[in-house]
Each structure stands twice: as structure tokens, then as C-alpha cells.
Amino acid sequence: MTGVHSANFDRADGVDKQVGFLWAPNWTFVFMVFLPLFFVFAIELLAFWKAEGRLKLVALAEPIESHDAWVRNVESSSSTYWAVFLVCLVFAGLFQWIEVCLIPLMNGGGDYAMDWGKLAIVRPDVISVPEAILFTGIAYIYMAIFFYIFFAGLILLYTIAHDFWKIRENLRNQPEVDYEAELNEIGLMVIRGIFRCTILGILVAICMKAQSSYLTSSDENIAAWFIRGMSSAFHQRNNVTDGIGFRMPTHYSSLLVVISTCIVFLFGSIRIGIGSQFRVTLWKMFAVVALLVAGYLLIGTVAGFSIVLALGVFSALYGLFDPGFGRWPASDLGTKLNVS
Questions:
Q1: Distance (Å, whole) CA 84 – CA 23
Q2: Which of 97, 105, 181, 292 could join 312 via S-S bond, C-beta 3.0 to 4.6 A?
């Protein structure tokens, strides 16, 4: 409708750069693939925990925990949800839109690299300034709402892990109850769900940082940027970063996403503390997360960063389909969650 789905502009250094909306992974892959999948896996884990996993553990030593206890755990984070909502709406949505899009569109320039949101400055034949202001305003509100739901999902994952730990500690105070097998099995299901959400959270951050790094590069499109990052390792090219003079706002917001996601995964791993028979699986999860984070940190900084990034992404995609890395419990509980 707006014409910014695929659009080029001639940059001052002579590069004919593709800045179309559909070429921006931080708007396409993030909001069309990774965040929807994050919501699916988070909802799946929440439904499992409330309707099956938690009930099985509570039944081992009734009445150590009840449904009311779970409700209290969720309600205890009410202020956190409101704080996250305000931060996402006011800062990530409104303030960022004003700084990154509105002011440059009104003043005709800025310190940020050109993208589809500011295309009206250099290509008024494609989209006018009023249209760009309206479209970017809607897009940033949409983004703020999505990221609020994302961080709310992380808080819920944290709550599930903490609730599991409280139930486990109560069970340990009842030595007459045989709970280890059930506890390890359910704990493995929970950590797998958290692992999947962690992968998707880091992939979101990778898309955000990759887009800003590409926009400040001298490549014509993001595919060429990725290929050059890979070939630079074989041709001993060191000029992988050539965006001096441009500000990259998503570098900081993407780092916040990575840190928040990894903290939840680390907290969940410590709190759940699955048995020794599943430690190998847990270490594999840590290896995939570490490889993904390394790929994120290396984006646009060293020659051959695309190789590490590709290895991390392929490992992560495998982990999404098989978070147990080939090792599933033999019970019906494990079979039910071997989906997606």
C-alpha cells in the first residue's frame, strides 16, 4: 500500500542500497516468524504446567501446593508487568519512534542510517512524509505491543521455573514420597520449553542487530552483506564494519533482549536442576545458546562473522524441532510435548 516493501536509494557514497520493508529481518522474520513461535511455545509450556505438570507434582504430596499458590506467584509480579508495559510503550515505542523516525522525517535528516521508515526524505516519489509518519507510528505501536507480550512471556517462564523450585523443595521435606523420577521428567519438559523460547529470543536480537549492521554497511542488500561477511574470512578482508558516522539504535535494544532471555534461561536451569541422567542434554542446550550469543556478538565486528552466525542459527533451528537432542522420556508425558 505504501510502496516501501521493496525500494532502493542512491547513497552519498554511490551505493544503490535496498531499504525495503520486506528486506528488513527485524520487521519481517521477527514479527512474522520468531515472536509468533515464541508465543506458541510459551503458551504451550504454560498450559502444560498449569493443566498437567504442576498437578502431577502437587498430587505427590497434597496439600503442599494449590492452584491458589500458582495464582499468588503470578500476581506477585503484577508491578513488573506494569513496569515492562510502560517501558515498552513509552520508551521502546513512543520515544524511539520520535527519535528514529519522526524528527528525521520532519527535519529532513538525522544521524541514523536510511531505512524504509525514513525513505520519504530521499524518495518522496515512493512515499510522502505524512504517509511515512502515519505508517511508522502504527508500526512502532505494533512493535511496542509485541515486545511487551514477549517480555511478559519471559516473566511467565521465570514464574514457572520458580514455582517448580518451590514445589521441589517442599517435596524434599517429605522423604517418604518417591518423587525423583516424576520430578526429573517434568523438569526436563519445563527446561525444554524455556530453551525453545530462549533460542527464539536470541534469534530476535540477531535480526535486530543484523539489520542495523547492514544499513550502515556498503552492501547493496542484506543477502550480499551476509555473503561478504562469510567470504571475508577466506579473502582476509578486515573491512567488515564500514558504517562510521551512523548511529545504530537497535544495537542496545537487541542487547537488552539477549541479556533478558539468557538470564531467564540461566535462572530456569539453576532452579529446575534436573537429574544427572539429563545433564548431557542440558549441556547441549547451553552450547547452542552460547554459540548463538557468540554469533550475535560477532555480527559486523570480525571477518567471517557470518560463519559463526550460520552455525549458531542452524544449531538453534535443530534445537527448536528437537530440544531434547534425540533423548526423550519414554512416558506419555514426554510424548505429548514432542510436537512443533
A1: 29
A2: 292
Q: Is the pLDDT of residue 250 over 60?
A: yes
Which parts of the chain fold into alpha helices (H)? 29, 35-48, 54-60, 67-75, 78-86, 96-97, 103-107, 119-122, 129-172, 180-215, 222-235, 250-272, 279-298, 305-321, 332-336
The total domain count for the chain is: 1
Exposure b/e, 75-91, CB count within 10 A at least 16 = b: eebeeebeebbebbbee
Q: What's the CA gap between 321 and 7, in Å, rounded?
A: 35
SS3 (DSSP) at 247: strand
Q: Would 46 be classed as within a structural domain? A: yes
Query: What residues are paired with 17 via a beta bridge?
Result: 9
DSSP state at residue 23: G
Label each residue of 102-168 as H, E or C: HHHHHHCCCCECCCHHHHHHHCCCCCCHHHHHHHHHHHHHHHHHHHHHHHHHHHHHHHHHHHHHHHH
In a domain, 16, yes or no: yes
Q: Is 235 domain-assigned?
A: yes
Whole-model pTM? 0.89
Name the 3-class secondary structure at 231: helix
Buried b or exposed e, range 221-246, using 16+ CB within 10 angstroms: bbeebbebbbebbeeeeeebeebeee
Per DSSP bridges, beta strands 16-18 and 8-10 are antiparallel
Cell numbers linked to 94: 513512543
What confidence tens digit (pLDDT) does each residue in 111-151 have?
777 888 888 888 888 888 888 899 999 999 999 999 999 99
DSSP assignment, residue 16? E
Q: Taking all residues of the chain, what is their mean pLDDT, rounded to a whole number?
A: 83
Tell me if 148 is assigned to some domain: yes
17 — phi, psi (to 5°)?
Answer: -100, 135
